[in-house]
Amino acid sequence: MTDPVCPLCLRPIPPDAPQSLHHLVPRLKGGKGGETVLLHHICHKEVHARFSEADLARQFSTIEALRGSDRLRSFLDWVAKRPPGFQSRVPGGRR
């Protein structure tokens, strides 16, 4: 069985890698019970560091919109070069 792939960074998500579910429409903005996607935890943290809940609900409620965002481009280029189980060792994440 192959590992799932993070739809943001396109790297595999090994079973031992930190991972989390991302609500495409934030729960607080009407997305409770809505579609979720499995992401590396580092990718999920970066999405929420760079976008407000309102931005996510209005403009970035799809993986395509997130991947196409200039605000995430440098992070996605950077993290794509890291191994699949990579975790940031900087407290509070990379911003």
Descriptors:
95 residues; alpha+beta; two-stranded antiparallel sheet; 2 strands; 33% helix
Describe the structure.
With 95 residues, the protein is of the alpha+beta class. It has a domain of 61 residues. Helix content is 33%, strand content 11%. A two-stranded antiparallel ribbon has the order 1-2. Helix 1 runs antiparallel to helix 4. The longest helix is centred in the middle third of the chain and has 10 residues. The mean pLDDT is 90. It comes from Tabrizicola oligotrophica. Keywords: Endonuclease, Hydrolase, Nuclease. This is HNH endonuclease. GO terms for molecular function: endonuclease activity.
- SSE order: EEHHHH
How many alpha or pi helices?
4
Assembly type: single chain
State the shape. Answer: globular
N→C terminal distance:
34 Å
Poorly predicted runs? none
> Which secondary-structure class do the elements indicate?
alpha+beta
Radius of gyration: 13 Å
Number of strands: 2
Report the helical percentage: 25-40%
Binned strand content: 5-15%
Average pLDDT rating: 90
Main sheet: strands, sense, barrel: 2 strands, antiparallel
Strand order of the largest sheet: 1-2
Keywords: Endonuclease, Hydrolase, Nuclease
GO molecular function: endonuclease activity
Protein name: HNH endonuclease
